[in-house]
Here is the input.
Amino acid sequence: MSGARLVFDLAGAVAIVFAGIMVVHRNPIKSLLAVVVSFFAIAVGFVMLSAPFLGAIQVIVYAGAILVLFLFVTMLLNLDTESASSDRRPFQRGLALLGIVVFAAILLSAVRRSGSIVGPSGEPPATGEIEPLARALFSQAALPFEAVSILLLASLTGAYLLMRREPPAKTGSAENRP
Amino acid sequence: MNVPLRDVLVLSVALFSLGLCGALLRRNAITIFLSIELMLNAANLAIVGFASRVGGYSGQIVVFFAIVVAAAEAAVGLAIFVAVFRHHETIDVNKTNLLKW
Here is the structure.
């Protein structure tokens, strides 16, 4: 077993264990912190798959920015832990679990036959260097790159509009309001 | 490549199934959203695995854009949760089951 494979399998085991902790924990803060560990392990997996830039992005953007935003909102909302007794739908839960097991079995049976389905496409394999990735990103993917910047601006504006409180009605200006 | 594609895909399937489990079984909207993020990450991992096998950088660029879109989605989704919480004082999905009032 090569070193890269050993590290990848260890990171994958950590990711699965902490994703399981996220699913079973009732306290949202604890499941959030478990997901942070899981995403770090996925970042290690990216690095082992010769995509170190994506590993860095995963740590900085996902574990660093998105999950901190989640943590901030969770603490802001001051949520209680889920109570086990309030759930009165055991039938649906069992059905959901059955569906997930069948789904995973179908996917795994497909993966089992994936041994040699993907051949080389003629392009040289990614070596993990940043420079050719940046060249491809700013030449062949320049238009989507600009498009996602507009998307980020739109989501920023949308988030601001959703979070904004209605300004208090001033006396005398009530007739201007619809 | 040193890491066999099968290991990558098995890990991706396991993470996706766990995320699906969380999305279907939890009732806290933030945990459901986290589970969806986990499923997105599982898909990203599968794409990077295939990209490392095929060669070239197209797969990594796709994952890069997926992460950016996930960031935008997280901002808007969490803003919606805060708005819902202001209205209902809870984000338990069993209790916030009406689109109006």
Remarks:
- Residues 5-88 of chain B form a domain with the Helix Hairpins fold (CATH 1.10.287.3510).
- The CA atoms of residues 5 and 49 of chain B lie 6 Å apart.
- Chain B has one domain: 5-88.
